[in-house]
Amino acid sequence: MQPYELFTPDQVEAVHEASLDILNRIGVDLHYEPARDLLARAGARVDGHRVFFPPGLVEEQRTKPPSRFTLYARDPKYDVIIGGDRPVFVPANCPAFVVDMDGNRRYGTLKDYERFTILTDQSPHLDLCSNIPVEPTDIPEPVRHLHMTYACLTHTEKCFMGSCLGAEAARDVLRMMAAVFGDMDDLADRPRVLSIPCSLTPLGYDERMLGALMTYAEAGQPVMINSIAIAGATAPVTLAGALTLQNAEILAGIVIAQLCREGTPVVYASGSSNVDMRSGAFCVGSPEMTMNNALAAQMARYYRIPSRGAGALTDAVLPDAQAGYESMMNLFSAVQSGIHVVLHAAGALETINSISYEKFLLDEEAVAMVKHVHKGVRVDEDTLAQEAIQEVGPGGTFLNAAHTFLHFRNELFFPHLTKKQSFTAWRDAGKPSALAEAHRKCEEILASPEPPLLPPSVDRDLKTLLERRS
Predict the structure, then answer these.
(1) Each residue of 149-159: pLDDT tens digit?
(2) Can you list the alpha helix ranges (DSSP code H) found in 108-166?
(3) Helix pair 9-21, 287-303: axis angle to 10 deg
(4) Looking at the DSSP assignment, which residues form a beta bridge with residue 283?
(5) Considering the entire predicted model, what is its pTM?
(6) Of 132, 141, 143, 341, which residue is 20 to 30 A from 301 by alpha carbon distance?
(7) What angle do CA 449, 450, 451 make, to 5 degrees?
(8) CA separation for the pair 289, 418 (Å, rounded)
(9) H-only helix segments in 416-455
C-alpha cells in the first residue's frame, strides 16, 4: 500500500538539515552525567548540562540502526517484526484512571493492570502489551515497575514494553526477563522487551529517561525514542517547526543509543500534536495529530528505521461519538501513513489520561477493520470473477453463486463485536448498545480461567526478586 505523505523529498531534507543545525548550534540539555560523558568521548562539546552534537557525529550514528528487527516472544507465534510490511498494534500506554460506562472515573489498580494485560493477551488483533495500560496506583511507586513486569510475565506470552523510570528500573526489568528467558547475552541475541524513553521537550532529556535508554541499549534491547512536541506550547506553533524540534530530539536519542551499543534497534517514535489555543489543553484527537503521524513516518523512512505513531486517541472523556471519530481518524491515518508501531491502539480516553474497558474492545474491533483494509485487494483471474459474472449475467444475483461461497470468508470483513442488523432485529434483541455489547464481551473474556504460564521454579525466582527489592 502506497503510504500517505505530506512532504516532498526536498522538504524532508530541509527538516533534516535544520535539525542538524539545532543540535550543533543550540544543543540539547542532558540531565544525566553518563550520557554527557559518553558524548564527550565521541567528540561532542559539553557545557554544563548542554551538549552540542557535531553534524558529522549525527550523520555517522544515524546510519547504524537496522531498518527492521524482531521481538521474540515466549511462544514464537507471538514474535513480531518491527519495520516490516505489517504494522504492530499496541494498546493504550500511561493512563492513570479507569472510566466506567456511566462516566465515573477512578484511579487504576494492579487488578486493572492485570485485566488489561489479559485482554491484550487474548486479542487476536493486538500484537504486544504496553508498559502501562493503566497506572497501578495501589502499588508504591518505587516498586511499581516490578509488579507490572511480573504481571506481564504471568498473564501473557506476548512481548511487552519495559519501564523507563531510570537505569535501576530498567535493570530490574532485564533481571526479571533473564530469569525467564536466560542470561543477558541471550536477551541481546534475541531481543524481547521494547521500551519508549521520551525526550523532555523542548530540547532536553531527564535522568530517568536517559538512564533507561542507555541501560536497554547496552543490553541490546530496542528503544522507541519518543518526542512529544506540542505545537504552540513546547514547540513552535507551525507544524514544520514542531517537526524539526521533534526530529532534533529523536536524532540526539539515536546517537546516544548507537554510542552505547552499535546497531541497537531504534524506532523513530512520535506522540506530537498541538495545544488548543482556546483552552491550553494538549490535543490528541486533532487533525494535527493525524498529520504528525504522516510526517513522523516520512522522517523515519528517510532515516531507514521503523516508526511509531499514535493510534486510537481521542480527547473525549467518554466512549461516545467524538471518541469514535477521533480514534478512527488517528488509527487509520497511522496505518495509511506507513507507521510501523501503532501505540495507544485500544482503550484510551481523555487525552490518554483515562482508559475504558468498553472502548478497549471497540478499538480492538477498529484495529481489525484497519488491518483488513491494509492487506489490500488481490487481483488475479479468480478474483476478477469474469466467469462468475458470465454465469450470473445481467439482472441476476451473486448471493447464491458458487464463486461467492468460495471467496466470501476470506474476502469480506466479519465483525466479532459490532452488529449489522435491521431496526426490528435490534429492537427484538433488547436494543443493545455497542458499549453494552463491549462490556458483555469484556466480562466474558475476563471470566475465563487462565493457565499458568511460568514453571513453578521460575515463578519462585521472580517472587524472590520482588521481595528483595520491596
Answers:
(1) 999 999 999 99
(2) 110-122, 141-155
(3) 80
(4) 274
(5) 0.95
(6) 132
(7) 120
(8) 27
(9) 423-428, 434-447
